[in-house]
Amino acid sequence: MGNIVITSNGSDLSISYDESSKNSASATASSADYKWVLNTNTKKIHYPTCSSVTEGSGKNMEYSNLGLEELQAEGYSPCGKCNPHE
C-alpha cells in the first residue's frame, strides 16, 4: 500500500496511504530494519542490494529478519543472482 500515514487532531485518528512510495523498497523500510527482501510471487530470498530487488515489483516484496532455514521451511528459496547465506 505504500507508506501508511496516521494523523491526529488530538481526539480522532485518520489513516491514509502514500501510494507514490509503494514501488520503492527504500521508501517502505530502511535496510537497517531487515536482513532479507522476499519476493512473495517467486518465493525467492534476496539481499537488499540484489539487482532483482530493484527490478522487481514493489507489490510482491516483503521484508524479513527470519533465518534462512525458517524462510525455506515457508517455501522460499535463495535467489540465484545474489545467493544469500547467513
Task: Tell me about this structure.
This protein has helices at residues 25-28, 51-55, 68-73; strands spanning 3-8, 13-18, 36-39, 44-46, 61-64, 77-78. The chain is α+β, with helices and mostly antiparallel strands and 86 residues long. The two termini are 30 Å apart. Residues 24-28 have low confidence and may be disordered.
Q: What labels describe this entry?
A:
29% strand; alpha+beta; 86 residues; two-stranded antiparallel sheet; 17% helix
Q: Main β-sheet, in a few words?
A: 4 strands, mixed
Beta percentage is: 25-35%
User: Terminal Cα separation, in Å?
Assistant: 30 Å
Helix content: 10-25%
Strand segment tally:
6
The SSE string, one letter per element, is EEHEEHEHE
Q: Which stretches are poorly predicted, pLDDT < 50 over at least 5 residues?
A: 24-28
- Backbone CA Rg: 15 Å
Spatial shape: elongated
Number of helices: 3
Strand order of the largest sheet: 5-3-4-6
Overall residue-averaged pLDDT value? 80
Class inferred from helices and paired strands: alpha+beta
